[in-house]
Amino acid sequence: MSGFPYLDYQHDQLWIESVALSAIAQKFGTPCYVYSKAALIAAYRAFDQAFAERDHLICYAVKANSNLVILQTLATLGSGFDIVSGGELQRVLKAGGDSQKIVFSGVGKSSDEIRRALQAGILCFNVESEMELMRLNQIAAQCQRIAPVSLRVNPDVDAKTHPYISTGLKENKFGIPMADAERIYVAAQQLSHIRVTGLDCHIGSQLTELDPFIEASQKMLALLDRLVQLGVHVEHLDLGGGLGIRYTQENPPAIHDYVQALCASVGQRSPRILIEPGRAMVGNAGVLLTRVEYLKHAPHRNFAIVDAAMNDLMRPALYDAHHAIIPLVKKMGQTQTYQVVGPVCETGDFLGHDRALYLEADDLLAVMSAGAYGMSMSSNYNTRPRAAEVMVDGDSVHLIRARESIDQLLAGETLLN
Ligand code: LLP
Questions:
Q1: Residue 67 lies in a domain
Q2: Do 125 and 228 share a domain, yes or no?
Q3: Counting Cβ atoms within 10 Å, is residue 218 exposed (0-12), middle (13-18) or buried (19+)?
Q4: Is the distance from the beta carbon of residue 375 to the nearest atom of ligand 1 less than 6 Å?
Q5: Cα–Cα dist 348/272, whole Å
Q6: Rounded mean pLDDT for each run of 10 residues along the chain, 417 residues in total
Q7: Are residues 175 and 246 in the same domain?
Q8: What pLDDT, on the 0 to 100 scale, is given for residue 268?
């Protein structure tokens, strides 16, 4: 299937690698996230091999999917990690990630998170403000460590993506304004417990064109040259994440072409290149399985009420994102146009609008391209336990996260006496 090399129909049944998805739904119940290990490995290798001989580090953006087995699989391949919280740090370390391959992004790192990352000995803090730099220097002094630092500079480039996931415009909250970068770099070099090691940017997510990446990298390289003039030498250039995937009609650049374009843009310059891909690594490695609970044929609309909801997959509700929805078992019959909705009490709780499907109660569906920002953005809204997660590896099926129980959800709460 286009975009999903490890997922296809065989005799009317949808398979992932060598397992029928309906068998997984029967065994583990729904809603359930299912990932293909082969797809994950293939995506990592595509990034890695495209760099060829150039010194590089792929820092998988953990926020896209932070399941320990996803992290473990990538760690085994030699991947680095881009984290944005103390929780993600703990996950990466638990999964066997190498702390010397961790970069720490984010505009609001707490003192405690900074301390833990210093103690772990991470590769680099991607610093997003002058105040953060001062706090980092202070905490590093207290911990008797030298903090390796990259400034995240906002290149003011239009990523041409959804406004909620565009980060590299000057009106966005991210990064240090380009006009301040040189001054802050020079100041950083004077700080006793800071070592300047890199330069960083990230302009947004789900980019489907190369131009904004190239424009941002050119601006970073021009800055890098100016920094050299000022006696600031960086060891690595972190060009962030953001490569888009195909959900339906999009035609994003292939991983290989994207990496090659970045390498060509950097040219003969020497720094090691870091990138922080999230979505392109896992997005099309995963699907969300759901079961039809009820069909409701109202006068103007047909509703398919399924057992997955906005708490399981928030992207449609939050970004009006389109995920293809297809049956696990193909059946012959007259299709109807359905609103595919969940049980949550909100009109915004939908997984897909106007989908042509032939459906009967209890039918199983796959919500496609759900490997990135699916489970990691899920919540317990409406006191709904979060879904199970399963990884398929050839013909083996592993439960990598058990479905939550309601008792687990209530465990932290105590009644007043
Ligand atoms: N690096 C930084 C600093 C980031 O902020 C992000 C994503 C990435 C890397 C990874 O970007 P990717 O390669 O996955 O595009 N929840 C949204 C996406 C939010 C992205 C936030 N930052 C969605 O579901 O579309």
A1: no
A2: yes
A3: middle
A4: no
A5: 44
A6: 86 97 98 98 98 96 98 98 98 98 97 98 97 98 98 89 71 86 97 98 96 96 96 96 96 97 91 97 98 94 97 97 98 96 96 98 98 98 98 98 98 96
A7: yes
A8: 86
Domain tally for the chain? Answer: 2
- Here the CATH number for the domain that contains residue 386 is 2.40.37.10
Q: Are residues 235 and 337 in the same domain?
A: no
Are residues 208 and 350 both part of a single domain? no
Residues 257 and 295 occupy one common structural domain:
no
Ligand 1 centroid to Cα of residue 141, in Å, is 32
Is residue 198, in this structure, part of any structural domain at all?
yes
Q: Is the CB of 373 under 6 A from ligand 1?
A: yes
Active centre residues (catalytic)? 345
Query: Quick one: CA torsion of 117, 121, 126, 129, rounded to 10 degrees?
Result: 60
Looking at the fold, whether 25 and 136 belong to one and the same domain comes out as no
Q: Does residue 177 sit within a domain?
A: yes
Instruction: Tell me, in angstroms, the distance from the centre of ligand 1 to residue 47's CA.
Output: 17
Same structural domain for residues 192 and 256?
A: yes
Domain region containing 143: 105-277
The pLDDT value recorded for residue 58 is 98
> What pLDDT does 159 receive?
79
pLDDT for position 4: 84
Q: What is the CATH number of the domain that holds 154?
A: 3.20.20.10
Does residue 143 fall inside a structural domain?
yes
Identify the pLDDT of residue 165.
67
- Ligand 1 neighbourhood includes 105 CB (under 6 angstroms): yes
